[in-house]
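explain this:
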Amino acid sequence: MSYSLSDPITTRAGMLKGLRIGDLTAFRGIPYAASPTGERRFAPPEPVAPWLGIRHAVEAGPNAPQRLRTVPDLDAAPLIGHGWSKGDDYLTLDIWQPAGGADMRPVMVFIHGGGFVVGSKNAAVQDGATFARDGIVYVAINYRMGVDGFLPIPGVPTNLGLRDMIAALGWVRDEIAAFGGDPANVTVFGESAGAMAIADLIASPLARGLFRRAIVQSGHGGMTRAIPVAQRLVHTLAKLLGITPDRDGFARILPSEPLLDAVDAVSLPTARIDLRGPDGREPVFGISRFIPVHGDDVLPLEPLEALRQGAGTEVELLIGSNREEMNLYLVPSGVRDKLSNRLGKLLAWFVLRKSLPHAWAALKAYGMGRGKPAGQALTDAMSDLVFRCPARRFAEEHRGKTHVYEFEWRSPRFDGGLGAAHAMELPFVFDSLATCTGVEGLCGTAPPQELATRIHAIWVQFARDGTLPWAPFDRNTRIVHSLEADRAAFEPVMPAAAFLP
């Protein structure tokens, strides 16, 4: 593989050179907004100060402050990266440019997941070279997370992480033509928290016109909180840190280990904090305390209500889920199997009731008490309640062109127990199976390359012209395409629908 500096490209802030890697060119660490430090820490993203000369965009650069959480016996680094790379200028993006110098190519912008508290554009599974290889101008972004990005602190603009994403998409609109991309043919795609954010952007008036298509992988618009509810977390964190629950108080605590300690403390399942809404539901089921809020200028309405009123009609949508999403959380941790003893039913109910009214009825609807172990009933119920069913609800309410997929390939890891878990589709979408293959890899030792080739090609074709090889979804036809089986069919309404808005 040959390496050399590219020819310079001119942007509004200055000139850039990337790194030629074989036939492709990678530009890394391009700032799309000024560093979120000092007075800008709790402010909306601001334009980058112009630079003189040529900037070498060849290093990935820093990312948002974070602390990784390990998954027992599973190498998660390819999915979420290696943790916090410290530095001020982390509102940056990477671009992979196809060979050949052609203009007006399709653009794909990836937003990473990680529960709005971990992750970065640099995770190995998100190898943009595979999309550039197939003629796509690929972009991946960093954004503010945790306290700085998704905590509605009084006196601070809300949803700063979403505002960062909007700023990055604005940068793509204004600058991507210089890299050979078509600003009128942008597909934004993401997984998990990144997919949740994209669903929110579809519903946001501030993001209208910034992308033509969206791919929402294991996400939906159901994970937002009302600002007053989310501010309970502000008060809890302030008490832990010994500060006032406002901008002045949090400005005293710089992004640092003590702040990350507090984030860890409130993120524990045993943390005593009630983030249920007026309907008694906790929309994230305890997976993350830090999520977007509704009731501001970014999300004036809850996303589903915004869709009902016509938001996002102009966006072509591909949305889907993995068949056994919650296996990632409950199988490696041993929770699923621990709930198979005599107390299993009671413990499963206790876990679910913290987030869902009528938890006992929901568990019974998923087979508890009818021969299915309580841990398996909880896992199956939460896969549908947290991910699969809300994705279908988003598809039902979206008034634009909508397609739904299901990823069902089962990893052999954990004696076959990991299955079609959360994040399993990522190495197939990116055609980057090597990053997740191995004894501790997500996909085990021999994942099927043919399936990765086919799924990756579906994503590429959708970004090119919006076409997909199966019929659209609506609340009557309910056509869902199973990716491994390569078959589209009617999908009945899930039992979880009776327990969700």
